[in-house]
Write a structure and sequence with these properties.
The protein is about 50% helix and about 10% strand. By secondary structure, the chain is an alpha+beta fold. It has two domains: about 230 residues, no CATH class; about 110 residues, no CATH class. The protein has a four-stranded antiparallel beta sheet, covered by helices on one side. It has a two-stranded antiparallel sheet with strand order 5-6. Strand 1 and strand 2 form a beta hairpin. Helix 5 packs antiparallel against helix 8 and helix 8 packs antiparallel against helix 9. The radius of gyration is 22 Å and the shape is globular. It starts with a helix and ends in a 6-residue tail after the last helix.
Length: about 350
Amino acid sequence: MKKTLLSVAILSTGFGLVGCNEVDQNGELCSYYVKQDMNAKDFDSALSRLETQSCQESYPADGYMVDKGTAYMGRAGTSLPDIMFSVMDSNDEGSEQDDSFQTFVDSMTSTQSATALTDLKLANDVLSEYLDGTGDDERLGVRLINSMVNMAQTTSAINNLLGGELDSWFDDKSDITDTSEANYKLERATCALEIINSIGTQETCNDTAVITSYSGPVSVTFNDGSTYSTYTVTDVNAVEETFLAGTPAFMVMTEGFCDVNYATGTEGDTDIYPCPLNRGNGDELGMEEYLLDTLKDGIANIESVVDNLPSVSEEDKADILDSIDEFKTEILAESSETDIANIEIEDLLAYLNKSESN
């Protein structure tokens, strides 16, 4: 109940759409049926309604965009209460272990759907469009929702970077004496990200105690004309993993494996590659943007908005801001930066690898 009350309080702040959830006298207001769809978790139906001009015109002040963004969030397997309370609870659960951000990522990714990355991007796009041109003090609730979407995007990016194997990040390898027992998924992924971004030299990545070699780039062109570069990273257990890069250099988010015709394949087979998440539909999703930019934007906007939400209790505001402060402290711990707005991808990679001790 508290989650529902908090999310309603946030939505009502600066939204300015009084009565948008009510049915009109004839029972024909589209927003009513959209809400019914979303309550039933039929997000595709809600989105289909919201695509029609008649439905959009039944909302005041372009408010349909907020419902549209909310529906994309739902289809991604998350919601405003889910994100809000994952943020607030992570500090309580993880502060003693200095891993509250890990706790937040674990909580968020446990419920996200297979389409989370693309749906969260769509949610961010439509909410950003809605907010475009409004003043800093207007529609605060929607600004906070979009900031929470930013945070959810970062958790999805981390999960995608690790191929869903979050344990490879959580595991403390400092006591491992037999390296064959370790899962070095995180180290392979972050090394590939370094190579693709030219953060370090070849020797820097090869000289780690975990990565023994890498090769690339090798060019591959898919049947729609999309051309990528592949990089293969090998760890001390002789586990090889291939990553995809776009042009200019950025790590492409992938899902599963396929041939150049986007037909599903098996990892390691001849002419099988990591499959671009958008599978030839353009607008490739770049790992760096989701790992870093959305994180910084989300944190900055949450901090700027929360204190100005009049309908949210001081206790809830304090819980949210305490968790954000804890996130910043953890992420900056391995960096020379003191302001998270100034961190670069190498700083975030240092944080992701903070438990590595091999």
